[in-house]
């Protein structure tokens, strides 16, 4: 796929095939995050990989985000920030950890799409519960749960309702 095909094909998948990505595919997704830019190249992220055989990890996801559809994903990548490692803008104290992990997360999503895999950003979950259940290191904050897998048979890219370019450009 060329890049425009990838960005048009990426969508928030909510139904997955039971077929899991290969270890090589997961490694390629991790590399996509590793190559993502970050402020001052601080890379303030950690990835918790939860595979199909990680029952404790799968239960942690189900507890933190109790939605039936999410259980259909064979794998998850929990993208975490480490705010103390992030660059902080000196003018106003803005910590860039969330911005940096958002870039890394979307690198994962686009790389997954290029491989025929699907993902969905999940941010509405209980981070305190997930931190405890995944036994994350101190100072590591789960920010995004990404289910990762092949879309279920019959899944199609839904039409995208987006603002027009006139609505998102600030005219000067």
End-to-end CA span: 36 Å
Strand content: 5-15%
Number of helices: 6
- Secondary structure: number of strands: 4
Unreliable residue runs: none
Largest beta-sheet details = 4 strands, antiparallel
What strand line-up does the widest sheet have? 1-2-4-3
The proportion of residues forming helix, as a percent range, comes to 25-40%
What is the approximate shape?
globular
Write the H/E string, N to C: HHEHEHEHEH
Instruction: From the alpha carbons, calculate the radius of gyration and give it in angstroms.
Output: 17 Å
Structure notes:
This protein is 34% helix and 14% strand. The protein has 172 residues and is an alpha+beta fold. Strands 1-2-4-3 form a 4-stranded antiparallel β-sheet, sandwiched between helices.
Short description:
The chain has helices at 3-9, 23-34, 55-64, 97-114, 127-133, 165-168; strands at 45-50, 75-81, 118-119, 141-149.
List the helices and strands and how they pair.
Layout lengths: L2 H7 L13 H12 L10 E6 L4 H10 L10 E7 L15 H18 L3 E2 L7 H7 L7 E9 L15 H4 L4
Antiparallel strand pairs: 1-2, 2-4, 3-4
What characteristics describe this protein?
alpha+beta; four-stranded antiparallel β-sheet; 6 helices; 4 strands; globular
